[in-house]
Amino acid sequence: MTKTVVALLVAGLLLSACGTMSLASATRSWVRQSQFRQNLPTLTRDVRTSASELRLSTASANDLHTVCAVLDVDSEAANSSLPTPDSQATALLSQAYDDFGAGATKCFDAYSNPSARKAALTWLRLGMAALSEATVRVDVATGLSP
Question: What is the pTM of this model?
């Protein structure tokens, strides 16, 4: 009986070792599959475009709705690629995408509301800060940064 238990434990350990992947390998795989690096410039451009329109007092309601809807859709698409293999990167990316979503939502109400414009810009700044930190964390998790 004892030999059987030991044999099963050893077999389980060997099987689990065969299927393990390092954090760096798993994160690199996630980066490829999610197209994180390809989508990052698009999302960043969406944020910058939305922020530019929010700063323009002449931006129409349609202009704001359009750019912020694009940001909202792209943020949701990026969010759908979560989680990453790295919990810290996942938390940071989730925060960034949530902040972008909050900014986009505020943007819809911002046409004639200066305080909503300011709030939307604040959410976008917070999202960019979290995205920047998340990108560094992804680099660390993939082994690209010391």
Answer: 0.84
